[in-house]
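Lecture 7 notes: from sequence to structure.
We start with the chain below.
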Amino acid sequence: MNIAVTGHTYVVAENRMIWRRFTQRYPDSAVTLIVPDRWVTTRYGQRVEYRVEPEQAGNYAVIALPRLGIVGRSVYRSWDMALRRTAPDVWYVAQDRYAWSTLQAIVYGRLRTPHTKIVGSSTVNIEYTLRRLHHRWKESFFFAATDAIVAASEKAADLLRVHDYQKPILVQHSNGPDEETWKPRGGNEFCARLGLGPFVVGYVGALIEAKGLLDLTQALAQLDGEWNALFVGDGPLRHDLQAFFDSQGLSARTHFIGYVPHGSVPPYVNCMDVFVLPSRSVEKEGFKEQFGLVLAEAMLSGVAVVGSDSGAIPEVIGNAGMVFPEGDVSALAACLQRLHDDPELRCELAERGRQRAIQRFSTSALADQFHDFCADLLAGRCTDPGGL
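Predicted C-alpha cells for the same chain:
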C-alpha cells in the first residue's frame, strides 16, 4: 500500500510519528508526507516557526514544498505536489475542506493520479449553514471528489451524514500521542524542582475562556485538603487566573509555567495526579472541543483525567475518567474532591485511561485503524468502522 499524506499539522515533528509507526508496523507499505517547507504561527504573543527538511528513511519520506501567498491561506508552488513521483494508492488530505490548498490537493490528485483514492478530513462538530457561495461550492466539490473522509469525532461524522455525505467515514483524529513519548515515569525530582506538593491538578494548553479555566480556578478554591495547580501554556487569561488565586490567598499553591514547546511537555504531565480539560462550548464563535488531544496524552501518561461534556471530550474519556456538565463548577469540584480523597480510584482511572489510550489513540492504534480502513477502501469493501 502506497500512501501520500498532506496537511500543515505535520510540520510539527511529533505529529509525524503516526506515519513513522505506520511504516514500522507495515513494512510492505510506503508513506510520503507532503508538507510546507516553512510554517509560522503566532499564539498569544509567542511566535513559533517550523522549518521542515526533506527526509528519506526506507519506506518513510518527507517532501517539503514551498508555498505561495500568506501562510495558512496559500497554495503550493508546485504543478503536481509530487504526486506523479509518488503515485500513491491513497492520497490523504488532512486539512480544512475550505482551504485553497485542500482544493489544490484534490484537483491535483484527480488530474495527476486518477487511479488514486482520495481521503479527506473533517473536524467540524457544530451544525452550520454555509452563507458564502465559494464555501458552498468548495464543500460540494469536496464531497463529490473524495472517496472517503476521516472525521475527528462522532459528532463530526454525524454532521457529514446530515449534510448528505454518503461515502465511507473513519472516525479518527489526524494525529495521536506516541506511546514511547507519553508514558508513566517517575517524575519526583522534576516535580520537586517545580516546588510541587501533594495532589497536583494540571492543565496544558491555551489560557483562554473557552477552555473553561475560570471554572477550574473556582473549583480548586472549593477543595478541602492539600493541593497544587500546574498550568502549562499561555494566553490572555493568565493574568485573570493569577489574580483570582492571589485574591483567595492561594498563589503559593499555583504554578504557571508559560509556553512550553510540545516536545518538552511530557515531564510536566508526569507531575500531575489529575489532568483537567474543562472546556466550554461557544457556539457563536463556532467552538466545541473537537477532540482533546491533551486528554489522550495525559491518559497515555498514566494520569487520571476529568473533562467537561463539551464536544468530543466524553468520546475520548469514555469510562476511563470523570465527565461533568460544562460550566458546572460544583460538579467539577466534586470530581476533584473525590479523586483527592480516593487514591485507589485515582490509580484505577489512570490505568483504565492508559489502556484506553493505547488501544484507541496511540500512534500505533491510529496506524492500525488507518491501514485497515485504507485496505478495505482499496478492496471495495469499506464500511464505517465505528466511533472513538
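Points to note: The longest strand covers residues 30-36. The chain has two domains: 2-176+363-379, 188-360.
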